[in-house]
Design goal:
Mean pLDDT of chain B: 92
Distance between the termini of chain B: 36 Å
Number of helices of chain B: 0
Structural class of chain A: mainly beta
Number of strands of chain A: 11
Strand content of chain B: over 45%
Low-confidence stretches of chain B: none
Largest interface: A-B, 21 and 21 residues
Low-confidence stretches of chain A: none
Order of helices and strands of chain B: EEEEEEEEEEE
Mean pLDDT of chain A: 93
Helix content of chain A: under 10%
Order of helices and strands of chain A: EEEEEEEEEEE
Helix content of chain B: under 10%
Oligomer: heterodimer
């Protein structure tokens, strides 16, 4: 059964700190890994990763995938209070035909 | 462009009543997903459709839950009869699907409370 495990489950830091969120996975016929940010409402898409070693970047957020070690990290630099959210990692397998398997999420709290 | 549209946004009902949740996917998207989110279990996939056909309903909790997609622009998730343990946020999402476009776009969700 496909599985996604995120760590830590919860993280509290001060504004301006840099954080690294982790996502490890076990999936048959991996196709892609996606990161979402969920504030009070619906998850919003951040990144989709398909190739190892290629960093995706958007402002202060960046992410990279390691398909050999089966994990991904999401980095946020110079954190702001608006970064407080639950960050979800999900994987899509070729076998699953568009089905995403989500991790349990990391709850990130940025204190001013 | 409008995103995924869900209605109602909030629903409060009494145990035993029928509940119908509605979803309009993004135009042109071939896949539609129904999820349930709770604090205890996180985000769970209930069922998904491809070109209006149900592909995988293994996440549907029990026979009280049913989902339909009569056309490309509309889907419903029905719970009959509802129970307090069905209280959760229900999300609908859609994706393009073709060419390996795996990104799913979520609607705002329906917060269901069953008393």
């Amino acid at each position: 059964e496909d599985k996604v495990v995120q760590s830590p489950l919860s993280l509290v830091v001060h504004e301006g700190d840099t954080v690294t969120l982790n996502c490890s996975y076990e999936v048959t016929n991996f196709r892609s890994l996606l990161w979402y940010k969920q504030e009070k409402k619906a998850p919003t898409f951040l990144f989709m990763l398909t190739s190892s070693g290629i960093e995706k970047k958007s402002g202060r957020l960046s992410s990279i995938l390691d398909k050999k070690e089966l994990f991904s990290i999401l980095n946020i630099t110079a954190t702001q209070t608006g970064d407080s959210a639950v960050y979800l990692c999900a994987v899509c397998s070729r076998k699953g035909a568009q089905k995403l398997v989500f991790g349990q999420g990391t709850r990130l709290t940025i204190n001013p | 462009d409008a995103g995924v549209i869900q209605s109602p946004r909030h629903e409060v009902t009494e145990m035993g009543q029928e509940v119908t949740l509605r979803c309009k996917p993004i135009s042109g998207h071939d896949y539609l997903f129904w999820y349930r989110q709770t604090m205890m279990r996180g985000l769970e996939l209930l069922i998904y459709f491809n070109n209006n056909v149900p592909i995988d309903d293994s996440g549907m909790p029990e026979d009280r839950f049913s989902a339909k997609m009569p056309n490309a622009s509309f889907s419903t998730l029905k719970i009959q009869p509802s129970e307090p343990r069905d209280s959760a946020v229900y999300f609908c999402a859609s994706s393009l699907g073709s060419g390996g476009a795996d990104t799913q776009y979520f609607g705002p969700g329906t917060r269901l409370t069953v008393l």
